[in-house]
Amino acid sequence: MNQRLKQLGLGLVFAGTIFLGAFLLFQVQPLIGRFLLPWFGGTSEVWTTCMLFFQIFLLGGYLYAHAIVKIKRVRLQAILHIGLLVLALCCLPIVPKDFFKPTNETHPVLQILLICSVTVGLPYLLLSGTSPLIQTWFGRAFPNRNPYRLYALSNTGSLLALATFPFVFEPLMTRRGMATAWSIIFAVFAVLCAAAVLLSQRKAQHHSAENKPSAIKDNAKLPRIRIWLWLGLSGGAVVELLAVTNKITQDIAVIPFLWILPLSLYLLSFIICFEHQRWYKRWLFVPLFIIGIIGIILARQNEESLSNVRVLIGLYSFMLFSCCMVCHGELYRLRPDPAHLTGYYLMIAAGGALGGFFVAVIAPLVFKTYIELYLGLLACGLFLLLAEEQGAQPQTYPVKRRRVLVVVLFVAGVIGILFMGKRSTEQQRAIANSRNFFGVLTIWEENWNDPGNHMLLMQHGTTFHGLQFTAPELKRIPTSYYSANSGIGVVMRNWPAQDNRRIGIIGLGVGTIAIYGNEHDLIRFYEINPDVERLARKYFTYLDDTKATVEIALGDGRLVMDNEPPQQYDVLVLDAFSSDAVPLHLLTTEAMEIYLKHLAPDGVLAFHISTIHLDLQSIVWKLAEHFGLQTAWIESFEDETPGALASDWILLARNDNFLGTNVIQKAKSRPYADLENIPLWTDDHINLFKILKKNDLAPGP
């Protein structure tokens, strides 16, 4: 009885260590991303680069685990691992230092990788190596039990971490509070892990004879094709994970929830497939994967008419989950003997790191559009085809039918590439594409056969950044969200002094607002993406046609302004958009303090908040209430003015000298805001679920 209790206790220590390590491993990912988003413009590529770091250090952790178990002296393994755990405790707490904030000259990918490495590198490396290490030591202590089920437990802990971050920790705690709590729990994990190491060492000494057969099996060679399939299947799944994450965050908002949803589905597939082989049925999941591919192809072709974000997220999530089930199901089917366990996990991690490197580094350099989503589908189909003859386990589905399904999957991926993106029509065609760290920019030409209505548009993701007519009589007309009847149009046309104005604008777009400038005005744009300036000057003429002096400061507007002396702007415009919304770090109290530092005493802040999915009005009004500012909300709608689009603007000022004038009072709409239930946003605390519009992601009534 005592022996059974000891074994139960030892098993609980192993299981608890793996579970807690996995929980910490995936709690830190969105947490570090939240710290870095404000420093790098709030783009989805910040998360992609963070994921590249996590994949690389996951590979490093698995490599460490693979190397340490090769040490013959078990006691030396224990000393080395416990020593590194103690060293990792010296890295706490995991809060990035302010001196790492980027400058205009830094390369964002390299900078993000450096910050992550210094801040959380060693703790993350040890957490990454925990699962294969503990599984190996578990296999030595209990040679007759299946250690792969502990991998399912590990992914369960990871999934719980991801699920609780946006719904529990982020709404209730600040970033620094979460970092402190994480650091304390890591200290508990370190103690538990050290106990597991010492107990496994003692157990191994009593059962050394039982480990000899494993040593013999370890010398058996595995088919090389199987090793390459471990690499390819894991890499294909990661490519799809990151590509889908980029897609939905680019179209909606760069928020932790939309990072976590795809990653949770990815982990869920690992849990299901590695818990037991009975859960993966190729005859079921390959057809579902094909259906998922067809679904996103149809959705891509009908994006303009399919505006329900829940449907779009559902389609991409369905495809991603079925893809991961196929890839991870095949990985489990091709698993080796437990003696090769660390090498097996090492190849899975290597595949993930290669997939992350491809999406984060290679794709932006090589491709001008987000083609990696469909290339990943092609790769998954190819690896599935190669996996047909591998593995000794019997398959109940006929081989010929399985091959037909795989070929269909491959063809669907080819069709996806051929039809990806928005297709040219008789009235609209793409004439330029540009891609960098900040995403894909497209220049569209419309009505090229109609000189009177011929226009050019700039698009980032699904968001238009402005348009201009090419006809001489129309090219100087302010269009889109900046028409004469828009909030900014009303301000610029009716400002009391029409000369010597100082105007600051965060977000360049095509430079439309510049056309309101007069001869002695200064207009200073803050633009984070250098490709935006290049395309705005090449295809649009607003910057050349304005009478004002134009300056363009490259870099994140908030960071650049924070390092500038007060500019005394008469009008300061916030017109930066990432995806469908203003980057969240531009809507916090700390950001507002920077804006007010640069605003003249009688100046006006103009917030452009046109968005489909988020209630940004309440956030801006909450900030206005906190700082005691006067406000006016001006809506404009599509009208007979050429090129005018509907827009929402909120004007803020320290006094009502301008906002109280008749022209503003006549133009403004009645405000609405839920100030009691909307929290004041700070850099440390943002609760996005409070402002999700009910017709999108928020629960229905």
Low-confidence spans: pLDDT under 50, at least 5 residues? 209-218, 392-397, 695-701
% residues in beta strands:
5-15%
Mean pLDDT: 81
Biggest sheet strand order reads: 7-6-5-8-9-11-10
The amount of helix comes to 55-70%
Structural summary, described in words:
The protein has 3 domains: 1-207, Growth Hormone, Chain: A (Up-down Bundle); 225-420, Growth Hormone, Chain: A (Up-down Bundle), CATH 1.20.1250; 483-691, Rossmann fold, CATH 3.40.50.150. Helices cover 55% and strands 11% of the residues. It is built from 21 helices and 11 strands. It has helices at 2-36, 44-68, 74-89, 108-141, 148-172, 175-206, 208-218, 224-251, 256-275, 282-301, 309-333, 341-366, 372-386, 399-418, 487-494, 530-539, 542-545, 557-562, 589-598, 616-627, 662-667, and strands at residues 428-436, 439-446, 455-460, 463-469, 502-506, 522-527, 549-554, 569-574, 599-608, 630-636, 647-653. The strands form 2 sheets. The chain has a 7-stranded mixed sheet, sandwiched between helices. A 4-stranded antiparallel sheet has the order 1-2-3-4, covered by helices on one side. A hairpin with a 2-residue loop joins strand 3 (455-460) and strand 4. Helix 4 runs parallel beside helix 6 and helix 10 (282-301) runs antiparallel to helix 11. The two termini are 56 Å apart.
